[in-house]
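Re-running Mechanosensitive ion channel family protein to confirm reproducibility after the cluster update. Everything else is unchanged from the original entry.
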Amino acid sequence: MSFFDGFLSFLIDMGWPQWLSAAALASVSLVATLVFKHLLIRQLVGASTHTHLYYDTLVLRSLSRPLGMLLLGGHLWVYERLCNHMGLSNDILGYWANTAVQVSLILGLMLFIDRVVRGTIEHYALHSVVVRNSQGVMSGLVRGLVFGIGVLVLLSSLGVSVTPVLASLGVTSLAVALALQPTLENLFSGIQLLADKPFQVGDFIALESGEQGFIERIGWRSTWVRMLANNLVVIPNSKISQSRIINYNYPSPEMSVPVEVSVHYSSDLVFVQKIAKEVAVQILKTVPGAQAEFEPKVNFHTFGDSGIGFTVVLRATEFAEHFVLKSEFIKALHRRFQEEGICIPFPIVALNTDQENALFRQVGQRSNES
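Result of re-run:
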C-alpha cells in the first residue's frame, strides 16, 4: 500500500478531500487496467488469428466487454477499500461496493455467454444454409434465454424474491401461448422441418396442393417457394409439415423424362424404334441440361385407338431442364419421322354403321307390311 499511501498523501497535501482523493486513485487505476486489458486482448487476438482454431479468437473477443464491466465493478470495491483504509467507509458504502461486484460479475457473464453463443451461430451459418436462414431467430431466442436467466439470477442476488416473478411469467406464457397458437404451430413445424430435412434450399419440390418450385428460404414461420414463373409463394410451415412432398432433388437431382409417342399401325416398329433411339441419343448429347451418358429407352406398350403407342425415356440433370429437353426431342423426332416417311396418326374414331343400317331396313320392312 506504500504507492497508494504516497499518492493519497500527495493528493491530500494538495488540498483534495479524502473521499475525492480515493476516487481519483481508483479512477487512475481503472483507466490503467482498462488500457492494459485492451492491449493484452488485442495482442492475444492477433496471435490467435494465426491458428487454425476458431473458438480461441471468439473467446478472446468475447472477453473484452465482460472484463471491462468486471473491472468497473471491481474498482468500485477498490474505492470502498480505500475509503475504509482512511476510516471513511460505512455499512452503506460497503453494501453498495459488494453489490456492484456481484452485478458486474453477473452482467459480464451474461455478455460473455451471449457473445460466444451468437458467434457460434454466425460461424455455423457460414457452412449451413439452414442455420443461415434461421440465424436471426436463433440469435433472438438465445439472447432472450440468456438475458432472462441472467436477470432472474441478478434479482435473486439482490435479495428480490423471484418466485412471484416466475409465477407471473408462467401465467403470462400460458396466455401468450393461447393467443399465438397458430404462430407457435408454424414455429414448431419449422423446427421439425429443420430437424427432419425433407428438403433444402435450392431443391425443387411439389406439394399435394399443387405448388411447385424451388426452395428459396426455410424460415421458422414459413417456407418461401420460387415458382417456375419466378413468383414467390410463402407457405406456412404447418401446411408443409402436413403435406405430401415430392422432392425432385432427392436422392439425386437427375430425373427420367418420359415422352409418349404414337405411330401408324402400318409402320415398321423395328425401324421406328431405331430412329427414335438415334434421335434421343443425339438430343442427349447436344441439348444443355441433358445427361449425355444416359442410354435412352424405347418401349412399345399400347395398341391405341389410332396407332401403336410407345415411350421414349430420356434423362435430365435436374427438374428445370426437362422442359427444354422434352421440347427439343419432340421437334427433332417429328422432323426425322417426316424425313423417313413414318406417320404419326391423328386421333381417329371409326363408326361402324353396318349393324345400324340392317336394323333400320328391318324396321322399314315391318312398317310397310303393316
